[in-house]
Structures are given as structure tokens and as C-alpha cells.
Amino acid sequence: MLVSTIGFSQTGKTITKFEQTKLQFSIELKKGFVASYVDKKAYAEVIFTNPKSYANGALWSYNKKFHNLQELIVIQEKDTAFVKLSKMKIININGMTAYFFEGTEKDEKKQIVISNRLIIDRDGFDEFYLIYLNAKSKKEMKPLIQIIKSIKKLKT
């Protein structure tokens, strides 16, 4: 069943695929994950979580009229939430350039968790995408990485 008002393709009550034309890509969620979407004037936000684990992710869009790539990179590099942060890597996700930050941070219970972030910059598009991925272990992080690897460009 397609719920076009919020852009989700839905099976039963579990959202399994996200396709939103404003963001111009699709994300396929792994089994057990659910997602929510908020479309604000200034940004769009997608949150995906697995209620049976700590694993969660968030995606925000940033309009290039008001933000630039260097600003978003510096914000990640200087974020005091990180306990440890590796050097940024530039990677390719299905033809899209992504700036990847791998680190750890303390959660609200002061436990150390894995915190990976990506900034996606698509040539010819008006928005950057900032993605946060959080998990307690590499095993929990694996499906989050698979979700991000599932990102595909929609035809424009």
C-alpha cells in the first residue's frame, strides 16, 4: 500500500521502504526497522529505528541556499558529543559522494555507543543530506550500514 501523503511504501503497519520525491532517493529498511518522516519548510527528517535494539538512524536535508558543505563537515569534526572520531573518509554510495565520519559518543545513560555520520552531496541537487547512525555494537550497526548502502537515486 502506498501512502503518498508522507511518501512511504508500507506493508501492514511496518514501513519497509522510504521513497520521498522531495529528497530524491529511496531507502529500503531492514527487517524489524520502522521509520517516521517529518517535512518542515526548512528541512525534511527521516528517523529509522529498530524497537528491539538500540540501533537507530536519522537523516536530515539541508538546503544549499542556506548551508554549505564545508560548514557541515566542520560541525561534525568539532562536535563535542564525540568521545572518539576517526579522520573523515570520502566514499561513494550508489553514485553519490558521501563524507563519512566514524566515532563513538556517550548516550543519555553515559554509555559509550558507536556513532557514524555521513554527509551526502549530490551534484545538481539543491540539498545536502546529513545522516546519523547509532548502535551499541558492530553487529547492531551492520543493518544500519546496509540501509544506507540501499540508498538509490530516484529518476529526475
Q: Could you describe the 3D structure shown?
A:
The protein has one domain: 3-Layer(aba) Sandwich (Protein Transport Mog1p, Chain A). 14% of the residues lie in helices and 50% in strands. The protein contains two helices and 13 strands. Strands 5, 6, 7, 8, 9, 10, 11 and 12 form an eight-stranded antiparallel β-sheet that branches. The chain is globular, with a radius of gyration of 15 Å.
Topology, element by element:
Blueprint: E1 2-3, E2 8-11, E3 14-20, E4 25-28, E5 34-39, E6 44-49, E7 56-63, H1 69-78, E8 82-85, E9 89-93, E10 96-106, E11 112-121, E12 127-135, H2 138-149, E13 152-153
Antiparallel strand pairs: 1-2, 2-3, 3-4, 4-13, 5-6, 6-7, 7-12, 8-10, 9-10, 10-11, 11-12
